[in-house]
Amino acid sequence: MSIKSIIAVSAMLAAMPGTASALDINLGHTLTVDSHYQAAAQKFKEVVEAGSKGEITVSIFPQSQLGGEVKMIQGARTGTIGAFITAAPPVENTVPQFAVFSLPYLFDSVEQANGVLQSEVGRSFLDKLPAAGLIGLDFFSVFERSVGGNRAIDKVEDMRGMKIRVLQGPGFIQTYDALGAQATPMAYSEVFVALQNGVVDGLETSPEQAIQDKFSEIIKNFSLTKIHLMPSLLVMSKPIFDQLTPEQQALVRDASHQAVQVSIDTYAKTRADALVEMKNLGIAINEPDLEAFKKTAREQWPALLASVPDGQANLDLIQAANAK
Q1: Mean pLDDT score of the chain
Q2: Cβ(136)–Cβ(129) under 8 Å?
Q3: What mean pLDDT do residues 120-143 have?
Q4: Fewest beta carbons within 10 Å, which of 140, 227, 288, 295?
């Protein structure tokens, strides 16, 4: 049996109750062990295991050991994966209202975005997940997504003709195309080689991911365009969650709540440290004036919202919360 097959079988067994009353929740994510996903997952594990007195254990599988985000979503819906941490865009196919978070320049800052997501507005989105067989426990820190590559971006015109790897989804593809780039979706596993070989000129990413995933070895510029502030969230399988007692469910929710601040604090530190490290590596950190970027990108909102269920209503809720 291959290693991948062993991991898959182990994951299925780990998600199900054992012969006694114990339950092992397998928790997957796609990022490295240096990420805010891992720090939050560790806090979740610590609180759940201490509070359950051995009735529940949590096994963490980083770096896509349980598959990519779409695969983990599918596994959680069927109960073969206990929980996972994901960015918001992969959730859009399952809960299309989440596509509102892919609007460019939806928030003004990481702090503002996190504040809104921790409010009743964020909870209203998490409450949409049970209908899809998922339990949305909490939003974790947003990612500040900018552009790393071999070309400096100091103004919108600098993006003209630049091939930039973006996430698959209208909010990313249409935005980058509108800004003059050639939006180029591709599998994340292919991006490093594509940059090396000049297939793409850059990628949209967060500073700490540029360091953690070694893109800092091949890029010459990191331009703080801050086009998307992309939410992340901790999600549990509803079939598994429903097997827990009310007391265990409350413990799981409390553990998630405690992991939120760990995620936010860890992201802030790793982002700041990454910018310093990139400078030390000789990578130019470019800080363009964003007003022209915002104007052009936000002109895409009506077209993007047209295909999002309750898009305008949810945008209104977010903007009202932004103004507080």
Answers
A1: 93
A2: yes
A3: 98
A4: 295
Q: Which residue, chain included where needed, has tokens 């100091």?
A: 154
The two structure tokens encoding residue 186? 């591709």
What is the Cα–Cα distance from 210 to 217, expressed in whole angstroms? 9
The whole-number pLDDT of residue 2 equals 43
- Closest residue by Cα to residue 191 from 227, 170, 171, 218: 218
CATH code of the domain covering residue 193:
3.40.190.170
The CA–CA distances, whole Å, from 219 to 70, 224, 226, 284 equal 28, 14, 17, 9
Number of domains in the chain: 1
In the block, tokens 């199900």 appear at 16
Find residue 28's DSSP bridge partners: 61, 84
With H, G, I as helix, E, B as strand and everything else as coil, classify residue 29. Answer: coil
Q: Tell me the per-residue pLDDT of 44-64, one tens digit each, with 9 for 90 and over.
A: 999 999 999 989 999 999 999
290: containing domain: 3-322
Predicted pLDDT at 21: 53
Distance CA 114, CA 260 (A): 10
| Nearest partner of 213 among 176, 184, 188, judged by Cα | 188
Residue type at position 172: F
Quickly list H helices, the chain. Answer: 3-15, 36-52, 69-78, 110-117, 120-126, 170-178, 191-196, 207-212, 238-241, 246-280, 291-298, 301-305, 311-322
